[in-house]
């Protein structure tokens, strides 16, 4: 007698599917497969078991509490995000701790701080990555660009680039990540938020570019047009016209060796003059962090080469 004739199927059992391609190796009976195993319905032989549990790894009764066991690995931390933090004052349920337990946690926290870094190089890495995260947050960069900057700092430390401070290499890593992603960030913007001078950031970036061979392309003025237009609150037609002027100048090769933000400011000034909108050279120069003389020079170039 077949097992399907002995045991009745309930409503809570897994839906079984028949496998017409395979037959039972013992009795050549009908084989069915559910979420757990493959069995023969005639003789009851278990042909194959699936030991992988496809269910969730959490135990929660609310969808908002369905969390996995920890955050993913990240390059923004010196230990890839696998460290443990000891809290203050309360336990996991939010209950107040007694004085004895708080003193015990303070001692544990002190010992953990002492043993967090295994070497001086790892301590410097933690300090440098913290500086990279601070700069990325101040410049409002995305998480992917921040992680690229952190990975660039790791590569610089592995190459043992000496003669540069940690702050300078961190700022250069952020600027290098911006250049590799085509973002409209200048050395002035990064050095303004950094804790070192602009010259040191520039020298550190040159060292990174020479030693690591960064895939950074030359910065084009058309990248800076939307940023300057947003600062000046220009209308869309002026922004589009300035973008067209910058792209045409790039095609003609006029922008070789020029300050990209200054040339973009000149494009906005020329577009504003064409649309009869009074945008002064001082306003666009201040937005591009250049002098009015630079804007005037690039404006004369546009008048001569670009229609």
UniProtKB/TrEMBL annotation:
Q: Does the keyword Metal-binding apply?
A: yes
Give the keywords, sorted.
Metal-binding, Repeat, Transcription, Transcription regulation, Zinc, Zinc-finger
Domain of life according to the entry: Archaea
Question: Which positions bind Zn(2+)?
Answer: 24, 27, 40, 43
TFIIB-type domain segment(s): 23-60
Any single Pfam family the record assigns to this protein: Zn_Ribbon_TF
Q: Domain Transcription factor TFIIB cyclin-like spans what residues?
A: 123-210, 217-302
Q: What family classification does the UniProt entry report for this protein?
A: Belongs to the TFIIB family.
The UniProt function text for this chain reads: Stabilizes TBP binding to an archaeal box-A promoter. Also responsible for recruiting RNA polymerase II to the pre-initiation complex (DNA-TBP-TFIIB).
> Which protein is depicted?
Transcription initiation factor IIB
* Organism for this UniProt entry: Halobellus rarus
